[in-house]
Amino acid sequence: MKNTRDNEAWLQALRAEGIEKEAALQELHAILLKVLPSALGRWLTPTSSHFESFIEDVAQETILRVLDRLDSFQGRSKFTTWVYKIGVNIGLGQLRLKKWQEVSLDGLEEGNDPAAMPSARFSSPLPGPEGMLARKNVTEMVQRLMQEELTPYQLKVMNAVAVQGAPLTVVAERLGSNRNALYKLMHDARLRLKARLEREGFSPLDLLAVFGE
């Protein structure tokens, strides 16, 4: 698929509503499904039975992350290059998380250590003592707001997927749901958390700065 949008056109379309936004999301999804297999295939063989669902999970998570971070795009590269880098980082992060293969969903929920949130585990370079303390405080705050703002079902899904790193496909199967329904649930949950953070005087960019992202 030939990309005919420039940076401003991407931002405008993704900030719009209705048909314009849906068309941009579908185009971005198709681009990710085209480029991610070659980028991540060196770590997970394309012949694996999990490869297709893994790439789909990464693509969907990338789109959610991009929508969350639109305001942080500074135009220093092509928009699709920026999205591609986000997708590769998400994919590599998921590949580092193997314990989801060996534990139950209940086990994932029981192991919620705020200091082990993905952003704290995989950000680089490693911070000094003050940076580590700031990250610990932020992750504990986010965990508290999740408990206060999310429904029990949203919390179950967000803990399993966003905190513990379980693939959405696995969580959907264990909950008797499907990926699309859980993507919508996670998007709604993130909007609730974003609104609460803003009421608390924080912005997503503030939190990303703490984690060096």
Please give a handful of descriptors for the protein shown.
mainly alpha, single chain, Rna Polymerase Sigma Factor, Chain: A, about 210 residues, 2 domains, globular, about 0% strand
Pattern of helices and strands: HHHHHHHHHHH
Largest sheet: none
Share of residues in helices? 55-70%
Q: Give the strand tally.
A: 0
Taking the alpha carbons of the first and last residues, their distance comes to: 30 Å
Low-confidence stretches: 107-126
Q: What is the global morphology?
A: globular
Fold and architecture overview:
This protein is 69% helix and 0% strand. The chain has 213 residues and is an all-alpha fold. Helix 1 crosses helix 2 (19-40) and helix 2 packs across helix 4 (79-96). 22% of the residues are buried.
A few lines on this structure:
The protein has 213 residues and is mainly alpha-helical. The protein has helices spanning 7-15, 19-40, 51-68, 79-96, 105-110, 118-122, 129-149, 152-163, 168-175, 179-199, 204-210. The protein starts with 6 loop residues before the first helix and ends with a helix.
Task: Please give the structural blueprint.
Layout: H1 7-15, H2 19-40, H3 51-68, H4 79-96, H5 105-110, H6 118-122, H7 129-149, H8 152-163, H9 168-175, H10 179-199, H11 204-210
